[in-house]
Each structure stands twice: as C-alpha cells, then as structure tokens.
Amino acid sequence: MGSRNNVPFVSWRRLKKSFYYAAKGIEHTWKHEQNFRIHVLTAIGVFMLAQLLNVTLSEQVVLAIVIGAVIGMELINTAIEHVVDLVVQRYDERAKVIKDAAAGAVFVFALTAVIVGAMIFIPHILQLLF
C-alpha cells in the first residue's frame, strides 16, 4: 500500500532506524543521568515487590502506566535540558527556569507515582502482616 507520492505507507528500514535511534537516546540517558538510573532501578524493584505480594494484574497495569510515565518524562526532561544548553551558550535566568520547570514536572509525577504505589502496596502489606 503506497501513498500518492509512491512512498510506502510503512518503511521497515526507516522504522528499524527509528527504534535504533530511540534506543541510543535511552542508552545516553542511562549513561549520563543519575535520576533516570534511579527511576529504572526503582521500577524493577517495584515490579519484583508486586510479584512477591501477589498484586493483581489490573494494579500492575496501573503501576506500569505511572512508572512508564515517570521514565518517559525523565527522557523528555533530558531532551529539554540538552536543547536549552544547545541554544543558550551562557547563563540565562530564563534557561534556568525552563530547566527547573521540566525537572519539577518529573518530580511532581514521580510523587504521584509514589502515592499510587502506596495506595496499591499498603493494603497488600497490611494483609500480609495481619
């Protein structure tokens, strides 16, 4: 199936390259961003704990969504920081505000994820203890 300009609807070669570049972005963020590594390792721990506590599948779906959002926001924050650094060559208060706001967005959603996690895990932990 092609479009009007004879370009295929899906180019498997381009799709493969886009996955490659996305993986390189994740790899770069893993290597250079401490908070990204913390979020990923915490996510692994959360999913392991969910298995140990027999958390329901629907609750694990909710955990996956909030964790994926936090990790995705961390990647976006890294991209924003790099764009600001590329555009602004010397200290500028507006650039600081942009970078701080992007980091704040990640922080707010990370706190939201912690609250969601607590709402899911606390009943399971209490049931295990009592």
CATH topology: Helix Hairpins
Overall geometry = flat
What's the main sheet like?
none
CATH class categorisation? Mainly Alpha
Structure class? mainly alpha
* Number of helices, where a helix is a run of at least 4 consecutive DSSP H or I residues: 4
* Whole-angstrom Rg: 20 Å
What's the CATH architecture name?
Answer: Orthogonal Bundle
Strand elements, count: 0
Chain-averaged pLDDT: 95
What series of H and E elements makes up the topology?
HHHH
Give the number of domains: 1
Q: Calculate the terminal CA-CA distance, rounded to whole Å.
A: 61 Å
Secondary structure: helix percent: over 70%
Short description:
This protein is mainly alpha-helical and 130 residues long. The protein has four helices and no strands.
What does it look like?
Helix content is 83%, strand content 0%. The protein is mostly helical. The chain has one domain (12-129): Helix Hairpins (Orthogonal Bundle). Helix 3 (57-87) runs antiparallel to helix 4 (93-129). The longest helix is centred in the C-terminal third of the chain and has 37 residues, at 93-129. The radius of gyration is 20 Å and the shape is flat. The chain starts with 11 loop residues before the first helix and ends with a helix. The mean pLDDT is 95.
SSE blueprint:
Elements: H1 12-32, H2 34-52, H3 57-87, H4 93-129
